[in-house]
What does this fold into?
Amino acid sequence: MNCPRALLPIIRSELTLKSLCPLLFIMPLLFTACSKRPSKPAPKTEKHVIVPDRQLSHRLDSVLHRIEWGNHVAVYIYDITADAPLFAFRADSLMPPASCLKLLTGIAMLKRMGPEYSYATGLYTRGKIKGDTLQGDLIFRGSMDPVFKPEELHLIFRPMQKRGIRHLTGHLVINLAHDEFPTPEPHWYPGDLAMYQYGLYYQHRDKIRRLVKAAARSYGLTVRDSAVVFGPLPRDNHKLYVFKRQMTFSLRRAWKNSSNTVSNGLLYTLGTTQYDGKSYRQSGVRVLRQFVKEELGDTTSRYVIHDGCGLCSQDRVTPVFLVNLLRYAQRDKKLYAYMLHYLPISGVDGTLRRQMPAPATRGKVIAKTGTLSHPYGISTLAGYVTGANGHLLAFAIMNADMSVLDARPLQNKLCAEMVK
It folds into this structure.
């Protein structure tokens, strides 16, 4: 301890108790001051910076440069965890997405309509029920439900039987949500979609009339052919029964099973939000284009969108577009949860059930597939994967004008590298 020299004579001299008291008071303070040493500045903590896996980038580059792919391949991978691009190979090339366009339709449905949106099919009465006779009209109200099948009509007419209704004095009225018979997009190939694959509400009116009439009669209703008509739902109606199906049931079919007819039904539903009085399908396409500009913030108008299912070989987007769409969905927790739940999983289910079944990749790739066999071969894979470093990656691999038998092994190889 270093003490001031001025204090030493005072300490050594004989002091009276009276003179020593003030000194005893100040000594602890002086010793404390003497014992203090200059403190060292606290070491600066370096901020941890998350960076993409550059070794993975090199491995992916090596895979793609082993063969001369020409203009047949385009790839873009974004490290969401590091919030930085990881890998790009012709990433801004416009290519047909095939069924990966269903990602746009589904995400737009979830955002525009909400996941709680439900399709409602119901049975209503107008008039009074006396005994087994309805003195008035029975109204069957359809919806835009893409997956409602004729065999489900029993759900609607069984309650009529339980109420004991067997006769009508009025009409059996069929009220449809739309009367637009699906027509192929001009660029679709003949036979791409057969009408029998569509749900009940997308069939010809004559077929709907016949099936509804048969279902009503099968549950004991006596009704003349001439009494089965199309018309509106009157305001003074009474609900007999309503069957509701949540929109996400259809979304699962569109993504997991890549159903084109269901995706078209979702597109028609989107069209109701901006219906121009002419075509629900065309209105739906306009909603998709508007969604790209307003939600994705892309106003370049360079993308070509003709339908909502990707059957059109003239559709054109880029890997960057698909990845940006995936990033948009990932930023919304609820939306991202639906993506993880309804997209196919490698080696597990959906259209990826037979792809990447090896232990190294099984269950690790969550992605939408897109495949067209014409004009020569179109194959796309876009989705999410978690890298070996724990980073979440969004990726899009697009192949065009090449055999699908060559495209899929390449996609599988790139995915295997991402999870290494």
